[in-house]
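Pasting as-is:
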Amino acid sequence: MNIYSLLDKSTILANLDVSSKKELLDEMIEVLSGRVSSEQLEDIRTAVFEREEIMSTGVGKSLAIPHGKVKSIDENLASFAKLKHPIEYNSIDGEPVQMVFLLVGPESKHTVHIKLLSRISRLMNSVSFRELLNDCDNPEDIYEAFLQEEQRYFAT
């Protein structure tokens, strides 16, 4: 599964202006509302916030990868946000986050979930790719950056 195929323009938030982790996660979850029922959306919200309580998903390098597994959904869903201003996220390196990739998946597909998280992490670990994303100002450019980078990175 390709990471870019989980995203579309409606699930990419460019220059998002939020002031807290809760506000950020709520916005990122809300953009999934067109793909799931209101009950499923609440299940997603619960899973993501419960996972965040266990340990921050701020992985360093100004990046967070919040995630969760949900019984009531049967496909992987994602959203991406590039923040207008970095926010405190309790990241492992103590630095605020500026880019956030949210992934939720079916509880029954644990292996796929882990593989997708690993793929997101490898993709976002590229300094040049993060710099490219920093230069993107709209969802279309961000989507195109993911498409091109993933095709280049995983073609080798």
